[in-house]
């Protein structure tokens, strides 16, 4: 084989490696400087691969994908991959590049739509709805992240079926685990199971700051934030950190839940956030005989919406598959999309795909890669 052919083959292998994506960072490995020397001698390809960290959990997947991509290039008969690890300097350069010059991924120059999911009372289904909404939006091809800001009562990892997941750290950057197409981060991924989190305001504020700046979400279309119930420290911190965010208010049809839900929306407005609308959860359950069981009464969602001057965006009925899906970490929007609660959530996701705040006039947040 002549040299130009070997060079052309090596170039073809490199181009094929451009289609291998790091499953955690979600960028082609060639853009992440993970591919070193590539050569092809008489059909035998040799590839130097640098992983970001020792013991990279995605190592096996990346190496397998590299082998498959190279082997698929016509003319390549065998593939040898030498796996190494980036030097500290290389890793620092990469994390600096990924982080870019933006102080926050979700600052005013970001194109990501940030939606806070809030409620007055606990237990109204806010986390269950956030998880399902995230998965529903991701299933339509959007790039979606979820921040579990319910630090004391985190439940997002379990709802998404990644209860035991631990984020990978690359230098200063934290890579969020991906579940059902959604990048999710939660304090539950950092503490030992069973350990209660009992922090005061400043610690909560710092954690929220870190979630928004040190967790590498990449370019998201939508970031959903599951707030703790009520109007405590976290809601106030996020009001300061994300004044451009929009707020979804979750309530049950019950009058008592509705009144406190309204208060959480008013606090959001005080920080400059806009209230998108109300989602009523645990609405009437249709019985086998056709009658409707209104376990939590009626009208709470409409009452809050009217007082806030916003629409009721969805009414999600009580649903056993929704609850079971949450317990199993298998969101109902994926497992039983025809279930009435799943259908209502999918319709809500469709409504949220359309921005209420136009992008015109806003600067483009250019990805520094
Ligand atoms: N539409 C529904 N039908 C049946 N069960 C539901 C529905 N929505 C939520 N649930 C169940 O209600 C319980 C509370 O839901 P969830 O944890 O999502 O509430 P929450 O508002 O996030 O609570 P907290 O903020 O206190 O953590 C869960 O067991 C969940 O499975």
Automatic annotation (TrEMBL):
Domain MIP18 family-like per the UniProt entry, residue ranges: 11-81
Keywords attached to this entry: ATP-binding, Hydrolase, Iron, Iron-sulfur, Metal-binding, Nucleotide-binding
Residues reported in the UniProt entry to bind ATP: 120-127
Domain of life of the native organism: Bacteria
Residues annotated as signal peptide: none
SUPFAM superfamilies, per the entry: Fe-S cluster assembly (FSCA) domain-like, P-loop containing nucleoside triphosphate hydrolases
Entry annotated with the keyword Metal-binding: yes
Keyword field contains Iron-sulfur: yes
GO molecular function, one term: ATP binding
Function: Binds and transfers iron-sulfur (Fe-S) clusters to target apoproteins. Can hydrolyze ATP.
Family matches, as PANTHER family: IRON-SULFUR PROTEIN NUBPL
HAMAP family, sorted: Mrp_NBP35
Subunit structure: Homodimer.
Family designation: Belongs to the Mrp/NBP35 ATP-binding proteins family.
Protein name per UniProt: Iron-sulfur cluster carrier protein
Protein's organism: Antiquaquibacter soli
């Amino acid at each position: 084989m002549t040299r130009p052919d070997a060079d052309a083959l090596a170039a073809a292998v490199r181009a094929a490696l451009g289609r291998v994506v790091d499953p955690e960072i979600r960028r082609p490995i060639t853009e992440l400087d993970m591919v070193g020397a590539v050569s092809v001698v008489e059909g035998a390809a040799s590839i130097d691969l640098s992983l970001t960290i020792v013991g990279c959990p995605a190592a096996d997947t990346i190496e397998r994908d590299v082998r498959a991509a190279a082997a698929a290039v016509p003319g390549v008969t065998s593939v040898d991959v030498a796996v190494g690890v980036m030097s500290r300097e290389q890793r620092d350069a990469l994390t600096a590049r990924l982080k870019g010059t933006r102080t926050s991924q979700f600052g005013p120059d970001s194109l990501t739509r940030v939606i806070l999911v809030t409620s007055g009372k606990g237990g109204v289904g806010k986390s269950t709805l956030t998880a399902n909404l995230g998965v529903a939006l991701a299933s339509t091809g959007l790039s979606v992240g979820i921040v579990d800001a319910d630090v004391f009562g985190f439940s997002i990892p379990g709802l998404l079926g990644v209860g035991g997941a631990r984020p990978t750290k690359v230098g200063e950057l934290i890579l969020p685990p991906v579940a059902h197409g959604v990048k999710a981060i939660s304090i539950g991924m950092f503490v030992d199971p069973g350990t209660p989190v009992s922090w005061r305001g400043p610690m909560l504020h710092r954690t929220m700051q870190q979630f928004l700046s040190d967790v590498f979400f990449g370019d998201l279309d939508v970031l959903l934030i599951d707030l703790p119930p009520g109007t405590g420290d976290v809601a106030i911190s996020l009001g300061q950190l994300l004044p451009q965010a929009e707020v979804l208010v979750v309530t049950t049809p019950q009058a008592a839940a509705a009144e406190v839900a309204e208060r959480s929306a008013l606090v959001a407005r005080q920080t400059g956030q806009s209230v998108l609308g109300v989602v009523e959860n645990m609405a009437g359950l249709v019985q086998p005989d056709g009658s409707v069981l209104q376990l939590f009464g009626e009208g709470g969602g409409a009452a809050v919406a009217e007082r806030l001057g916003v629409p009721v965006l969805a009414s999600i009925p009580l649903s056993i598959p929704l609850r079971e899906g949450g317990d199993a970490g298998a969101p109902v929007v994926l497992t039983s999309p025809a279930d009435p609660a799943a259908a209502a959530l999918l319709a809500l996701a469709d409504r949220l795909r359309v921005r209420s705040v136009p992008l015109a006039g806003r600067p483009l947040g250019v990805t520094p890669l």
